[in-house]
Amino acid sequence: MNSSWYREPWAWLVFILPFTAVVAGIATYIIANTDPDTLVVGDYYKTGKTINLEVSKVKHAQKLGMRFALQFSNNQLVVKPTGIEKTFPLLNINFFHPTLEEKDFYLALTPDGNGHFRQTFDHDITGKWKITITPFDNTWKIQETISLPQSAFIDIIPNPTKAQ
Questions:
Q1: Would you say the pTM of this structure is higher than 0.70?
Q2: Is the peptide bond before 149 cis (omega within 30 degrees of 0)?
Q3: How many Cβ atoms from other residues are within 10 Å of residue 134's Cβ?
Q4: 87-111 exposure pattern, b = at least 16 Cβ within 10 A, e = fewer
C-alpha cells in the first residue's frame, strides 16, 4: 500500500514544529527591534563621579532646612515651602517616570501670592513618579518617589540616601 506523503500525520509533524519555531523567532525579532529599551547610562564612570555632587546638594538642602509639601488633585499640582521662611523666585521640578522615559517632563514654576507653586495639567499624570526639586541656581536638591494623585499634602524632605 503506497500512500502520499501529505496524508501521513508524522510528515506534517516534522514540518510544523520547525515552521512554528521560525515564525516565533521572526515575531520575537520584530518585537525586540520595534521598541528597544533605552540605555540607562552610557558613561558609568562619569555618572559615578557626579553622584557625590548630587549627594552634597541634597545634604546642603538638609542643612538649610528645605522642606516642601506637595498635593495633586483634580489635575492641579500644588507645591508649598514648609521648611524655612524664604521665598523662591523659581522652582525647577523634574518628573521622572520609573519605566517610560518619554513620559518624563520638567516644570519651572513661579510662586503665587501665597508663595505656593501651582500647575494645572490637561493630561493625566497619575501613577508613580520620582521627582526632584531644585532652585533656579541649582545649589540644593530634594528627591522623592511619590504616587499621584495625592488629595492630602505629602512632605517632600531631603534625604541623602535617595540621591542618585
A1: no
A2: yes
A3: 18
A4: ebeebbbbbbeeeeeeeeeebebeb
